[in-house]
Design brief:
Helix 1 packs across helix 7. This protein is 51% helix and 14% strand. It is an alpha/beta fold. It folds into two domains: 56 residues, Rossmann fold; 131 residues, NAD(P)-binding Rossmann-like Domain (Rossmann fold). About 2% of the residues have low confidence.
């Protein structure tokens, strides 16, 4: 029996690759995009499988500074929360469903200069999704957090284009990383089509993962970060234990 997938942001990047892989697998897709016309040719090719809906999950914000930061959080966090709230009532009634949240390795590790707003939102998505998974498990609803590394979709090109000039004080941090992104663009290891198939495989698994790292770079970064955190926790373990009330 064909399943129905709701995919947000399906006009480009990993969302588009996932949509195409789902269609190829024979399932149905309801896909959202800010511009419905961007999907017109695909809906014509798959009239019985694909329905495109124009949807902006946030209110747009064009100004810089705090408003720009808020716009990132609105899109990458509240957009996720809004869509999750929209689909959950149906899943609860059906006592089944699978929510796949697209995060980033930057939502698991973070620390990239110049991406504080983006990574703030992705960290929040992961915290929200972890709690959500435990809340909806009794209803038979599963949650998987996807954490891709670099994907060859043009994302790094956009990341390398800051909205304004870099403050001189941050040239050695933010400026350096923006230059790295410019060199990285087009050389990312992640294949969006392979990643899309991996996501479908995870959804099909008898025991789907809570977190799914995609890309060798994401795997290596995650392992290194976890090892570093464990080492630091061990180094400061005595201080951590010393803050309890005395037991005697």
């Amino acid at each position: 029996m064909a399943r129905t997938w709701l995919i947000t942001g399906g006009s480009q990047g990993l969302g588009r690759a996932l949509m195409l892989a789902v269609l190829e697998a024979g399932d149905n897709v309801v896909v959202t995009s800010r511009k419905r016309e961007a999907l017109a040719s695909l809906t014509a090719e798959h009239p019985d499988q694909l329905e495109a809906v124009a949807l902006d999950v946030t209110s747009p914000s064009q100004s810089r500074g705090v408003d720009e930061f808020r716009a990132q959080v609105d899109t990458n966090l509240y957009g996720v929360v809004n869509m999750t709230r929209a689909v959950l009532p149906v899943m609860r009634r059906r006592r089944s469903g699978h929510i796949v949240q697209i995060s980033s390795i930057g939502g698991r590790v973070g620390g990239t200069p110049g991406l504080s707003a983006y990574q703030t939102a992705k960290f929040a998505v992961e915290g929200f999704s972890e709690a959500l998974a435990n809340e909806v498990a009794p209803f038979g609803v599963k949650v998987t957090i996807v954490e891709p590394g670099g994907i060859r979709t043009g994302w790094a090109t956009g990341a390398a284009e800051p909205s304004g000039p870099v403050t001189p004080d941050y040239e050695e941090t933010v400026g350096l990383w923006m230059a790295r992104f410019a060199d990285y663009a087009g050389n990312e290891p992640g294949d969006p089509d392979r990643m899309a198939r991996a996501i479908i495989g995870a959804v099909d698994a008898e025991e789907p993962p809570r977190r799914l790292l995609l890309g060798s770079d994401a795997l290596e970064i995650a392992i290194s970060a976890e090892e570093g955190r464990l080492a630091e926790a061990g180094k400061w373990a005595e201080v951590s234990r010393s803050t309890d009330f005395p037991t005697t």
